[in-house]
Specification:
The structure is a homopentamer. Chain A is α+β, with helices and mostly antiparallel strands. In chain A, 53% of the residues lie in helices and 15% in strands. A seven-stranded mixed sheet of chain A has the order 2-1-3-7-6-5-4. In chain A, a hairpin with a 4-residue loop joins strand 1 and strand 2. In chain A, helix 4 runs antiparallel to helix 5. The first copy, chain A, is rod-shaped, with a radius of gyration of 34 Å. Chains in contact: A-B, A-E, B-C, C-D, D-E. Chains B and C meet through helix 2, helix 5, helix 6, helix 7 and helix 8 of B and helix 3, helix 4 and helix 6 of C.
C-alpha cells in the first residue's frame, strides 16, 4: 500500500520547475557512469563530478550517462544547464511517481518508464522510475537506485558484438527500453507461479489466509497495471516515428518492444481475470462448507431430538402410565427409537445429505 | 450526500443569462483584490467597488482580478458589461454546480475547475467552483469563498522571482490551474491514508462501522471522479493550443498540468479499485465469521445431543430396565458417554473444524 | 414497467409513413395554439382547425404552432401537406416511443426530445415525447398532453422582454429545448431526495421494503438514462451548427444546453452508482444480521446444552449412583453447572461475541 | 442452447465456396416465387425450376425472387452462375449461422439479417437467417423456411398502392428490412410481458423456478443481442449510401429503419439490465428468507433451552434437594419458567425479531 | 494453467534477434516439406537439409515450405539468411508465446496465428503458434508440432482442383488462415457441448465439482479469447489490402475469414456470458439448499423443543405436583403434546415451509 502517491503534496504551491526529490532515498551516494562509443572506439568511466561529462557534448560519438540516485539535486541542475533541458523535465525526473510517458522537446525526447523489482518475503512488486533523455548523440538515464537490468547492455557495448555499437543513440534507448520490458516477464512469471499456487491451494485447501493472499495479489495487479498500461502509448508513439531522432531502422525494433508490452499487458489482464475468478470460487467454497456444517448439525438434531423427546416422555412421573408397567416396554421403546432414527437416516440418504 | 445537484431547479423556466447565484452563500461580504504587474512594476489593491478595476482595462500589464463570494450579482454584471462578457458566462459563474469545462469565446477563454477542500471530522471532501476568465492581458478568478490555494502565487508575483512576472496572462492562468491541481494531491494523500487505515482495520478487526466507512469512501470516490475526470479534457484542449490566447511556451507547462491531472485520475481510480476490493473482503470475512459461529454451534450440539439422549434413556421410569440394576451400570454409561464424545471430537478434528 | 416499448407491434407489416398514433391517449381534444411574432408585433391565438395556421406560412415573422394531443391524425396530415413534411417525420411524431434524435431534412430540422414528469404517490418518473420541427421561420411543437413547461417561454414572448422576440426560429427551438432540459433538474432533485432518504434509511433501519425501493429506483435510473443519454448527441449535433437553419449566435446557447445535458447525465450516473452501492450495503447488512442471530442461538445452545446434559445425567435412575447419596451432591452440581456456564460466557467474551 | 454454433465444423478443411447447407432442414420442398413489377405492370408466379427466372434478368422491371428452403444446393448454383454471384456469397447464404452483415460486391449488395420467431411453450425466440441480394433491378431473398413476415409487402406490390411499385430494387430491399425489424418489436413486446410477469412474481412469490426462468430470460437476451447488435452497423453502412445501388431518396427510409434498430437494441439492453437486477433481488430475497427461518429457530431455542434445563434440574434424583420438598416448589418453578420465557420474548421484541 | 507466459524470462537481457526456442519441444526431429506449384506443374518433397529449398527461390512458381518443429535453430538461421528475413522475425517465430499479429516488412508479410487443439481427458484446449511468412512467390509456415489442419490444403494442391493452383502465394496464405480459423469451430463446438452439459447438470444435480468445472471452463474462455481476439485485427489489416503482396481478388476471401473470426469471437463471448451466468445460478442454488437444510432443522427443533420441555416438566421430582396424581394426567399430556405439535406444523404449512 505504500505505493499510493506520497510526498507529492510537498510540492503544492511551489513554482513549476522547482527541483525537489520525491521518493525514498535509495542510495547513499549518487553514482555517475559514462559510456562513450561508436563503431570503432569505446570509453567507460565512473565520474565524481557531473562536469566531467560535458566534454562529450559535441563529439559525434554516442554518449550514455547513467545516474543512480537522484537526491543530490545539484547534479541534475548542472546537467540541465549544459544540455539545455527544460526545467519541467528536470522536475519530472526527480518526481518519482510519474506515470510512464513520452514527451518530445524537439532537440531531445524525454521518456519515463517503470522498472519492476520484487522484494521481501511475499514477493511484493516494486516499481522504480527510470527517466531517459535521448538526444541526437546522447542518452541520459536516471535511476533511483542502481539496478542491474542495464548491465547486459553495458556488456554488449563493451564487447562490441552485435548491432549496438554500430547504431545511434535511438538504438541505445531502444535497448534500454527492451531490457526494462523484458524484465517485466521475469516478474510476471514469478507472479504467475504465485497465481497458480494459489489456485491449487484454493481447490485443495482453502484457508482464511487464502482470501488475504487473493486480495493481496489483486492489488498487486492494480499496481502492475498502472505501471504497464501507459507504456503501450509511450512506445507506440515512439514507434510511429514522429520524431526525427528515431530512425526508420530502429522503428522495427521499437515495434518489437511494443509487441512485448502488449503481451505483458495481456498477461496482467489474464492474471486479473484469474484472480477475480478465484474470489468467486473462494466465496462459494465458503458457502459450500457452511452448507456442509449445517447438514451435520441438522442431521444430528433431527435424529436425536425426537429420540430425546421419547426418552423424556417415559421419564415423566405420572402415576398412571401403563407402558411403564409393561413387561416389554423398555425394549419396545428402544425398538421404536432405533426405528425413528433409521427412518430419519434413510430420509437424509434419499435427500443426498449423507 | 449534500453534493448532489441542488438548487438548480430554481432556474427552470427562466430566460438564459438570468443571473441567480446557486450555491451556499459562503462569505459575508464579497472581496475584490487586484494584482496588476509586468516584469518591472507591480500593484496590489483590495477594492470595494468593482468599477475601480476598469482603469486597468486598456493597460498592457497583466491584471488579475480575484473575487471571493458570488452572491452580490451586481458586481458580476458590471464587470461583464465593461469587458463584454457573454451573459451565459456570467450565468455559469454564478451556477456553482458546473462540471469542469473550457469555453473559447475568441476574445477570452472561460475555464471552470473545482478546488477541493476537506472539512469536518470525517474528512469529507468538498468541492468549490473556481471560474477563470482569461483575456490577452487579464485573468479574472471567481471563488465562492476565500481559498488560500492561490496565496503562494500571489507571493511569487509580489517577490518578482521566477518566470511569473515575465510571462503573460496565459501563464498566470496556468499557475492558477497548477495550484488547484497540485492541491488535489494533498487531498488524495489524506484519502490514501484513510484507505490504508481502513484496509488494515479490515484485516485485523472488521466491524459493522467498517462497512459504512467503506461505503462512505466509495461515494467520496464517485464525487472526486466527477470533479477530476472532466479536467482532463479541459486542460487537454487548452494544451493543444487551439486558442491564440495561449502561447507556445505556456503549452509545455500546460502539458505538465495535464500529466498531473491524469495522475490524479489514476490515483482516484486506484482508490476506487481498492475500495471495491475491500467490500468483497468485508463480505467474505462476514461469511467466514458466520462459518466459525456455526461450527461452534454444530460441535456443541453434535457432542451433547447424543449424550443428553443417553442420559434421557436411563432417566426413563420403566419397571423393567435391567441396566439400571447392574452394579456397574452407572460407570458404564459414563464410559459410553465419554467414548461417544471423544469419537465426535476426533471426527471434527479430522474434518479440521477444531 | 409500463414504459417498455408497447403498441409498437401494431405497426409491423404496414407501409412506411402510415400514420397511427402509438401511445396512451392523454387529452380529450387536441389543442392548437399559434404564437406569431417578430421584434415589433405579436399574435396569439387558439385555433380549432389547423387550416387557420397556414396563413402564416409565407410571412417573415416567426410562427410557433403548438399541438397538444396527437390522436387526431388528420391535423398532422394537413399540416404535413401544407409545409411539405416527409411522411416518415409525421409517422415518427405519432410514434411516441422514439428515442431522442435529430434529423436534418434540409428545409427543416426534426428534433425529438423527452419531457419528464413525475406522477403518482411513489413519484414515478414519466417521459412524454416532444417533437419539434424547425424551419427558417416556424417552429412546430407536438406534445401528447398539455405540459406547462413551455408556459414561461410563452410569457417571455408575450412580454417582449429579453432576447427571444429579436431572434429567429432557431432561438425559439433553443428556448424550448432549454426549458425541457432545465425541468430535468427538477425531476433529478426530487429523485436525489429519494436517494438520500433511502440511504439514510439503509443505515438506520433497513427493511425488506428498502430492497424493493432500491430496485425501484434502479429501474427508474435505467429509464432516465434512456431518455437523457441520446439527448447529448442530439444537442451536440445541433450545436456543431451543421445546418444553415442554426445561426452562429444561437450555437453558443446550444452549447449551454449541451453542458446542462451532460450535467444531467452525470447526475443520473452518480445516482446509479449510489443506488448500486446501496444494494451491496443492504446485502451485507442482511448478512450481518444473520450473523447476529446465529451468535445468539449459538451462545444459548452452547451454554445450556452441557448444563441440560448434566441435569440429565443426575436424572438417571441407576441403582448405584453414589453422587446422588452425597450430602452436598446437589449444591455441588449447581456449582459445576454455574462454573461451566461461566467458562462458556468468558469464552464468548474473549471471542468478542458478546 | 441449441443456438450455439453447430454443424459449422463440417466445413473445416473444405475449399472456400463449397456449397453445403448448414442448418436444420426446415421445409420439404424449396419454394421459388417471382414477383416482377414496375409502376404499370405486375407479374407473380411460383416456379418449379429456377431457370424460369432468368428471363427477367435483362428486363428493366424490378424482379423479386424469393426462395424458401435452402437444402437443394443446385438451385443456388444455377442462380449464382446466371447472375454472376461470387461463390463466397452462395456459401454464406447456405451457412445459416452468419451474423448480420452487408457486403458490397459493386454489381450487387449482399445483406444478411436475422428474422425472429418465437416458438414452443416457453416462448423461446428463434432466429432464421434471411439473405438478400440486391442488384440494380433485382432482389433475391433466401429464407430457411417460409416466413409470412414478407406477406404484407407482397400484398402492397399486388395492390399497387403506395410508393413501392414506383420505386426501384433498393426500396424493395428497404421494405424487406423494415418488415423484419418491425417484427422484432412483436417479439420484444412478448418478451417484455414475460419480464414484467417475472418481476411481479419475484416480489410476490419467489420460487426456485423463478431463478431458472431468470436464467432462461438472460440467455434469451444474450441470443437476441447477437442477432440485433450487428444490424446497426449493417443498416448504418447501407444508409450512408456508399453504394450507387442505393438512391438518395431511399436513404431517408433506411435512416428510419436504422432508428428502429437502435430502439430495438435499446430495448434489449433495458431488458438485460432489468433481468440482471432481478437476479440480485432474487438472491437477497433468498437471504432474507434464510434470516426469517433462522430467527424462528433462534427464538424457539432461546426460549425453550433454559426452560428445559430448569425442568431437567428438578428431574434430578439427588437425595438432598430441599426445593423438591417445598410446598410451593412446583408452582414456583412454573413461575420462574414463565418469567424466563417472558424475559426472552421481551428481549426479542426489543430486537425487532418478532 | 500451464498456459501462462513461461520461459520468456530466459530472454531477459539478451540482445534482440537472439534465436532461442521458447516453448515445449514437441517433435523429435524437425520435418521440412516443400510444395512447389503453379497452374501446370506440381512438386512435393520432404527434405532433410533446408538448403535444398533454396533452389526454388527465384522460380516464378509458388513455393510452400512447411517446417514442423522449431528447436533446431540452425534451420531458421539459414532460411533467414537466404531469404533476407529480419532477425526479429526469426526471433518471434521461435518465441511461441506471441499473440496473433501481422507485420509488414515490405518484401514479405509476417503473420502469427494460433492453431487450437484439444487434448487430454478434460478436453483442455491448447494453442500452438503458427507463423507464416508470405512473399511474392513463397509461403513459409512454421509449426511447433506436426498438425494435420493443413492436410486438406495439401490435398487440394495435389489434386489441382479448385482455385488454389491458379492463384498466387497470397491465396495460399488465405487458405492456411482459413483452415486454422475453420478448425476453431470444431473446438468451439466441443466446448459448446461441455457448456450445455454443464448447464443441464447445474439445473438437475449441482455438485461441488460443478463449481470447479465452471471455473475451469471460465479460464478456458479467458485463454481462447486471448488467442482469437487479436486475430480480428490481424486479418482485418490483411483484408484492407494495404500490402501490394495481397491482391484484390484475394481480399474478398480474406473478408470471409474475417467474418468467421468475428463469429468465433462472438461465440467465445456468448460462452463467457453463459458461464458467468452459471456461476450465479450455482451460488444461488447453494443458498437455496442451505435454506432447505435450515428449514428442516428449524421445523424439527420447533416441534420437538416445546414437547421435550413438557416431558421434562412432568419428569420433575417435586413432592407436590398434583397433575402427576390425576387419573387422566398422562393421556392429557399426550393430547397437549400432539396439539402443540399439530399447531406448529400448521404454522409451517401456512408459511409454505412444508
Amino acid at each position: 500500500m505504500a505505493r499510493v502517491t506520497k510526498g507529492r503534496s510537498k510540492k503544492a504551491g511551489l513554482p513549476p520547475g522547482t527541483l525537489i526529490h520525491i521518493g525514498a532515498r535509495k542510495v547513499e551516494e549518487p553514482k555517475i557512469t559514462i559510456l562513450d562509443y561508436d563503431e570503432n572506439q569505446f570509453h567507460e568511466r565512473e565520474v565524481k563530478a557531473i562536469e566531467e561529462c560535458f566534454i562529450f557534448k559535441d563529439k559525434p560519438t554516442v554518449t550514455w550517462i547513467n545516474i543512480d540516485g537522484l537526491h543530490q539535486v545539484g547534479i541534475l541542475e548542472k546537467l540541465g544547464e549544459c544540455y539545455g533541458l527544460h526545467p519541467l523535465v528536470l522536475e519530472d525526473i526527480l518526481n518519482t511517481d510519474q506515470r510512464p510517458k513520452m514527451e518530445d522537446y524537439a532537440e531531445y525526447l524525454y521518456v519515463v518508464v517503470k522498472m519492476l523489482h520484487d522484494k521481501g518475503k511475499r514477493g511484493e512488486v516494486e516499481a522504480e522510475q527510470v527517466s531517459l533523455i535521448v538526444g541526437p548523440n546522447f542518452v541520459f538515464s536516471f535511476q533511483e537506485s542502481g539496478g542491474d537490468v542495464f548491465e547486459p547492455i553495458r556488456e554488449r557495448i563493451r564487447s562490441g558484438k552485435g548491432r549496438l555499437r554500430k547504431m545511434g543513440a535511438d538504438y541505445l534507448m531502444y535497448s534500454l527500453l527492451d531490457a526494462s520490458v523484458d524484465y517485466y516477464f521475469v516478474i510476471l512469471e514469478k507472479l504467475g507461479e504465485r497465481v497458480e499456487f494459489l489456485e491449487e491451494e484454493l481447490v485443495t485447501n482453502p484457508k482464511t489466509q487464502t482470501l488475504q493472499e487473493i486480495h493481496h495479489l489483486k492489488s498487486e495487479m492494480i499496481f502492475l497495471r498502472k505501471a504497464v498500461w501507459p507504456l503501450r502509448e509511450v512506445i507506440g508513439s515512439l514507434e510511429r516515428g514522429e520524431s526525427p531522432l528515431i530512425q526508420k531502422t530502429t522503428s522495427v525494433y521499437l515495434r518489437d518492444v511494443y509487441d512485448h508490452t502488449i503481451q505483458a499487458i495481456d498477461t496482467v489482464e489474464t492474471f486479473r481475470d484469474m484472480v477475480s475468478g478465484m474470489l468467486d470460487i473462494y466465496l462459494s467454497s465458503v458457502s459450500n462448507r457452511l452448507n456442509a456444517v449445517m447438514k451435520v448439525l441438522t442431521i444430528i438434531a433431527t435424529v436425536f431430538m425426537p429420540l430425546t423427546f421419547l426418552a423424556g416422555v417415559y421419564g415423566m412421573n405420572f402415576k398412571h402410565m401403563p407402558e411403564l408397567e409393561w413387561r416389554w416396554g423398555y425394549p419396545l421403546v428402544w425398538t421404536v427409537m432405533i426405528g425413528v432414527g433409521a427412518v430419519m437416516l434413510i430420509y437424509f440418504k434419499k435427500k443426498k445429505w449423507l
